[in-house]
Amino acid sequence: MELDEAKQRFIQAWGTLGSNWGINRTMAQVHALLLISAESLCADDIMEKLKISRGNANMNIRALIDWGLVFKELKPGERREYFISEKDMWNVVRQIIIHRKKKELEPVLKVLNDVSDIEGESADKEAFLDVIKDIQLFASKADKTLDKLVNSDANWLMKTFMKMM
Amino acid sequence: MELDEAKQRFIQAWGTLGSNWGINRTMAQVHALLLISAESLCADDIMEKLKISRGNANMNIRALIDWGLVFKELKPGERREYFISEKDMWNVVRQIIIHRKKKELEPVLKVLNDVSDIEGESADKEAFLDVIKDIQLFASKADKTLDKLVNSDANWLMKTFMKMM
DNA sequence: ATTAATTTTCAAAATTTTTTGAAAGTATAA
DNA sequence: TTATACTTTCAAAAAATTTTGAAAATTAAT
Questions:
Q1: Domain count, chain B
Q2: CA–CA distance from B156 to each of A137, B90, B147, B163 (Å)?
Q3: Does nucleic acid strand D have an atom less than 7 angstroms from the CB of A25?
Q4: Are the beta carbons of A120 and B20 separated by less than 8 Å?
Q5: Beta carbon of A59 within 7 Å of strand D?
Q6: Of B52, B85, B118, at which residue does a domain stop?
Q7: Is the pLDDT of residue B165 over 90?
Q8: Checking CA distances to B157, which of A117, B45, B91, B143 falls within 20 to 30 Å?
Q9: Residues whose CB is less than 8 angstroms from the CB of residue B32 and which lie 6 or more positions away in sequence, other chains included
Q10: Which B residues 108-137 have CB within 7 Å of strand C?
């Protein structure tokens, strides 16, 4: 395979993966493009390489900066902004975990907690609470494990992976 | 909170969680409804409780059966089909992992492998391959860890969680 | 202060995903 | 066989999400 074709394929695959995981396809593609670009790119570069509009490029670049996956690079004497991506894959994974955990896991923990406090006494209530408790057990274990994960270093992660295998 | 309100809140939360994770909101809601129903429900029950159409109910029940999260229950002397959900949360998590891994992780592993085979020699190529290798390392570790996970029992999972914490 | 370069915003358009509901299909009973 | 009860399908409608592009805002240079 040619290098350019390989790059193209990678960008597409990363986009598909992203959209399956609730991350906007274009956002994932911009990320992929920056990951495999030796040089930092400006908005126009990204627009051209991904064939997307200025607004789209701008919005997704900003989202990536929000997620801590992309950084601005100001070139001396240059007016326009250039962008580089976080290259350390462990940091990439970590940032994604932090964001998704906050957006998705934490609200669920809150709901599970809220719905645990029910009035009255009935077999129905007890059965419901049993299910909720069970889910809570999983959810809070996952929550704590992810906390540990994001606060650990790459080495710890790898060791844990190893231990699990 | 009243039991009915709690159930409603739980169903909504489960739906939101699902849709954030690439699982259709209604599918997740049907799942939630069945999880907290003491009795098995028929299509009409589900349509009524979730205020959805017959087609929608049917499709999502079917999908849940596909995912191994819901089972048909045939009542003797009754013509219509009733449905119950997998109640063991560990089995629920396991089935979801199996499905998502197959649908999302495995295709990415294939692409990473495909794009690793590039013609020519250049610094550019080497830089690209470095990034791909790095991602491959993470992806294959995740793949193997998930395999181990789905093939293990609930007890092992809990122990691993414990160890990690 | 004016101009020029660049970034940001956001309403409208395009696209994608989900839902509906009626028709077709299937299975059971009479 | 015919009627009845129920399930499945799928094209069209509705809803949600993403993208566009031009105008507004910002920033820096002259």
A1: 2
A2: 15, 11, 13, 10
A3: yes
A4: no
A5: yes
A6: B85
A7: no
A8: A117
A9: B10, B11, B13, B14, B15
A10: none
Taking the CA of residue A154 and the C1' sugar atom of nucleotide D14, their distance in angstroms comes to: 47
A60 and A36 within one domain: yes
- A123: closest chain B residue by CA: B38
Give which of A93, A9, A11, A7 is closest to A52, Cα–Cα.
Answer: A11
Each residue's pLDDT tens digit, A102-153: 888 999 999 999 999 999 999 999 999 999 999 999 899 889 988 988 887 7
Residues of chain A with Cβ-Cβ distance to B117 below 8 Å are: 1
* Whether pLDDT at A21 is above 70: yes
Residue A71 structural domain: 3-85
Test A16 with B107 for CB contact under 8 angstroms. Answer: yes
Beta bridge partners of A73: A82
Examine the fold and report which residue of A25, A51, A85 is the final residue of a domain before the chain moves on: A85
Instruction: Summarize pLDDT for B126-141 with one digit per residue, the tens.
Output: 999 999 999 999 899 8
What residue spans of B80-122 are helical by DSSP H? 89-100, 106-114
